[in-house]
Amino acid sequence: MGARSVEITGLLKAWGSGDEGALTRLAEQVYPELRIIARRYLKDERQADTLQTTALVHEVYLRLVDVTKVEWQERAQFFAMVAQMMRRILVDAARARGAQKRGGAAQMVNLDETALLSSDPGRCILALDDALTAFSQVAPRQAKVVEMRYFGGLTEEEIVAVLNISPRTVRRDWDLAKAWLLREMNIE
What we know:
two-stranded antiparallel ribbon
């Protein structure tokens, strides 16, 4: 584990133990990474219809403030939680836009080689969320791998650490999830 990961883990543990200032110091440490993750999701959005990168990161921070009673073990666990938060924020924003405009466009997600789900960047976040929610009923661990990898930007090694499974299992889970989601979303 690198020095930066150790520092982030230490801040997570301090925050989990009630050190309010640790969250502020943690935010300073992870802010650049969160912006990179957010920028990746929002890069294909039309300017007028999208959340801004900074707004998405700030919304995650506001939700983190309300997180209590988590026994933080490591950096990857934190980013797995952030992945869930980003997913919910993006889905909520897409639903809100759809409610505002009858038949309006949902938020588009770039499902490129980073996500490894599709070469077609024209799929919407709502379709992905619906498919992933259905998949989590059938294969919860594999759905978690997708969420952490796509929404959280976690590496294979970080997913191994969070889920306590082998790298080979992560790869198999990813391949299964990818095939299932491609079929469900009718992506060829």
